[in-house]
Structures are given as C-alpha cells and as structure tokens.
C-alpha cells in the first residue's frame, strides 16, 4: 500500500527551522500499530495521519503520533496539517477548515500567511515547589521567577509550567534525565508528561519544552499544545488579554515563532495560537 505524504516545517519563518512534521494522507486503512511504527521510523517530534477527508465541507479527521505514543491534541501537527490541507489538498485554498482530533473538533483559520487554531478550555491542576526542581536540574531557587506558581495545565495535552527569572537560566538549563523522569511519573496526571520552562520579559517570551521518550531526554523545537497551556496560564495569572510571540527552539538550532492571541472573559478562555509553515517535500510511503 502506497500513501502520499508531505513534510513541512511548522512555526517557521523559513525552511529548516521550526518543528518538522510528516503528514500522511489516505491513512484510513492503517492500523494504530502501523501508524505508530511509521511515526517511529520517520522520528519527527510528531507525525499526522489523515483518516477521513471531506473536500466538500473542508473537513478532515486526523490522528497524531510521537515516535512513542498517540497524542490527543498537539498544536504544531494541527497547524502543519492544516497548511497541507489548505494549500495542497482542498480546492481553492480555503481560509477556514475544521479538523477532528481525539479531543474533538478544532476550528482553523488562515490570516495572511499565519494559520491559527482555537484551543479547548484549559484545566489547572496541581502546583509544585521550586525545591522539587533543584533536585533534578541545575537550577537554583534564585533562578525561578516569583510572581506565578509552578503548575500543571492542560488544554488536551498536559504540561508543567515553570517560570524562570532570566534568559540565562533558560539557556543554561540542564536536567538529570532519570530523576526528572521519576518526578514526572510521580506527579504528572497523565501518561503524556512534559516540562515547559519559560522566561517572560515584558512582551518577550522565550521557552523550552523537555520530556523523556524511549528513555531519552528530548527537547522540542516548537510545542503548540504547550503554548496553548502557557497562554491559558498567563491569561489567568499575568493579564486577561494580550498578543505576543513565543520563541522556542533557539537552543537546539530550530528557531520557532508561535504567535499568541488570547483573552479571558470571566471564566471563558479564548486561546488562539498561530504560526507559519514551510513546504519542504512530498513523496510516496510504502506501508
């Protein structure tokens, strides 16, 4: 069985930046095991599989896999898959489409060269002590900012938000893989476990996402799902409306720009992230 696929760089202003994504079309007859094997073979942070396509109504159903497991929601795969569908698959390059992912439908719209998604309502879970992090990282207590809590947040995929007091602390960050993995297994509420470190300076936001997969410490170039969590977190604790750009991937040679446009009205979060995508390649995959 031969499947067409596309490769795009997401949250990238140019090729070979941002986060890589493979988008597999015509995947409705693949088993979950086959999708997982293909995601492991290409070994990008995530790959997507289009399992249902409705060209008449500009809708699609997709599944999202890391090399290790399936995701219920992930930002850069949704943005990148939307770019492929809007520019390569659907007729007339529509400005609005809908994607169905395991957590439900996601509305997508295009404005100029940015593709935007609207995230689900967030949930705010446990808060943690700074001291915990000094046991499995090189961070000192003085390296943490003091305005906001350290907290696990989810909009479909969960991450622990960890604010730092300087860009230098973020740049020099190092984790003990085994100790960090043990801490996450003990404290994170879902099987998807990630730490999202950030530094906020005025309207400048810098971030790094680290997790453990296949017993390896992995850093992501651009994490849309974590960005929706961070946007929700900042709307709750920082200010109820803002626009800014989240810079991620700088320290692994894949600079990324994730655009935030959020608003909190009462208890209702309007969480939107946007980004550009760059077309890299297309081909046929023998499944």
TrEMBL record:
Pfam families: PhzC-PhzF. It comes from the Bacteria. Belongs to the PhzF family. This is PhzF family phenazine biosynthesis protein.
């Amino acid at each position: 069985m031969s499947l067409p696929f596309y490769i795009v760089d997401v949250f990238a202003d140019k090729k070979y930046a941002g986060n890589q994504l493979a988008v597999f079309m015509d995947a409705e007859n693949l088993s979950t095991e086959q999708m997982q094997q293909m995601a492991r073979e290409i070994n990008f942070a995530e790959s997507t599989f289009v399992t249902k396509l409705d060209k008449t109504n500009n809708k699609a159903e997709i599944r999202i896999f890391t090399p290790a497991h399936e995701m219920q929601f992930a930002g850069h795969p949704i943005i990148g898959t939307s770019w492929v569908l809007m520019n390569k698959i659907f007729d007339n390059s529509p400005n609005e489409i809908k994607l169905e992912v395991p957590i439900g439908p996601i509305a997508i719209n295009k404005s100029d060269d940015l593709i935007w998604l609207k995230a689900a309502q967030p949930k705010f879970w446990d808060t943690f002590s700074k001291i915990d992090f000094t046991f499995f990282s090189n961070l000192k207590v003085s390296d943490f900012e003091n305005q906001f809590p350290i907290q696990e947040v989810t909009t479909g995929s969960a991450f622990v938000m960890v604010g730092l007091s300087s860009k230098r602390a973020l740049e020099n960050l190092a984790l003990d893989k085994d100790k960090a993995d043990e801490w996450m297994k003990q404290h994170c509420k879902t099987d998807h476990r990630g730490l999202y470190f950030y530094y906020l300076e005025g309207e400048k936001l810098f971030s790094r996402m680290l997790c453990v997969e296949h017993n390896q410490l992995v850093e992501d170039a651009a994490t849309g799902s974590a960005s929706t969590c961070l946007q929700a977190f900042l709307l709750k604790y920082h200010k109820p409306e803002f626009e800014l750009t989240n810079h991620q991937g700088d320290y692994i040679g894949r600079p990324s720009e994730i655009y935030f446009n959020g608003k909190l009205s009462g208890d209702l979060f309007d969480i939107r992230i946007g980004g550009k995508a760059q077309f890299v390649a297309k081909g046929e995959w023998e499944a």
